[in-house]
Amino acid sequence: MTSLFDSYQLGNLTLPNRVVMAPMTRARAAADGVINESAGTYYAQRAGAGLIVSEGVQPSLTGQSNPNTPGLHTDEQVAAWQPVTAAVHTNGGRIFAQLMHGGRVGHPDVAGHHPVAPSAIALDSPLFTGPRGRRAAPVPRALTTAEVPGEVRAFADAARRAVDAGFDGVELHGANGYLIQQFLSSNTNRRTDAYGGSVTGRIRFAVEAAEAAADAIGADRVGLRLSPGGHVWDIAEDDVPQHYTALVEALAPLGLAYLHVLVTTEEDTLVALRKAWPGAFIINPGGQIGPQEGDRALGEHWLAQGADLISYGRAYLANPDLVERFRTGLPLHTSDPDTWYQGGLTGYTTHTSYQH
């Protein structure tokens, strides 16, 4: 039986175990998107993971969603990431950058640009904008058909910069209500051109973004995260099994490094997607943020259902040595939500390995 502690060959990377650190926003970058120096310590502390996926990184200024998140669209941002990735590698780890374009989940007070989206449909939730607090989400500007390829290129350009910054690869964020899922979703994509309407139209942006990133840095360095049927940021999706089966079938020929799927729909649908996908399949058993965190038992359950790798988010915040805690049955600490995004080192680099 497959174990969380078995090695796994992911493209050119040999992972020493099947535990993945999931991407988690920490909101500790400078206002210009330059990652902080302490990020090197934070990620290196967690280098025992088979693979680390970084916090969401905006591929362009227009794509920034939250305040104080890092970018990969300027030379200064690339230079700031280099010691971070080097620290992970020095500690024996592997790290992908998650490329996250917020789409309509953005505000001019954060990025200095009006957000763009598949359609001009506002988010019905307030957004945190920094010093000005929570403000109503603006109606995004709908991308013209001619503009969509530019947003596709943003993912490819950021993928190249990620490699320059020392990342082992990139993960495109196609989950949790951000731009790629906005194209996938039936309530945020009301387009009538080639990027909307039918299932084929709504999956087109995701496929083109993945293809562009793969062309830029090699398919074995590109993953895609999905949350089928998830409702974060007011997302609604019709006919999830048909929709995501079509997406998986369209992506399969690209030879991507992996699919990273959150448990946001029925188990039988996810198992069917696993069977339809020819490559590495990562499951995040915690799904959307809720009362239940992923644990070892859930990970082992999904390995038995055919997943290759299991990702953990919140469990990694307070347990940088999560793999060893799982392996030896040590208790897990619980993180303080007040420290997730507030800045500073508390709750960021202050958690340590288990002390006997």
Structural notes for this entry:
- It is a single chain.
- The model has no long low-confidence stretch (mean pLDDT 93).
- The longest helix has 19 residues, at 199-217.
- This protein has helices spanning 38-45, 75-90, 108-111, 148-164, 179-184, 199-217, 240-251, 267-276, 296-304, 314-317, 322-328; strands at residues 8-10, 13-15, 19-21, 51-57, 95-99, 116-117, 126-128, 134-136, 141-142, 169-174, 222-226, 258-262, 280-284, 309-312.
- The chain has one domain (8-339): Alpha-Beta Barrel (TIM Barrel).
- It has an eight-stranded parallel beta barrel with strand order 3-4-5-10-11-12-13-14, surrounded by four helices. A two-stranded antiparallel ribbon has the order 1-2. A two-stranded parallel ribbon has the order 6-9.
- The chain is 31% helix and 16% strand.
- The protein has 356 residues and is an alpha/beta fold.
- It is built from eleven helices and 14 strands.
**CATH-scheme architecture:** Alpha-Beta Barrel
N-C termini distance: 30 Å
Stretches where pLDDT is under 50 for at least 5 consecutive residues are none
The H-and-E topology, N to C, reads as EEEHEHEHEEEEHEHHEHEHEHEHH
Q: What is the total number of structural domains?
A: 1
Q: Helicity, in percent? A: 25-40%
Largest sheet: 8 strands, parallel, barrel
Return Rg in Å. 19 Å
Q: Report the CATH topology name.
A: TIM Barrel
Question: Which structural category do the helix and sheet elements fall into?
Answer: alpha/beta
Assign an overall shape. Answer: globular
If you average the pLDDT, what whole number results? 93
Tally of helical runs:
11
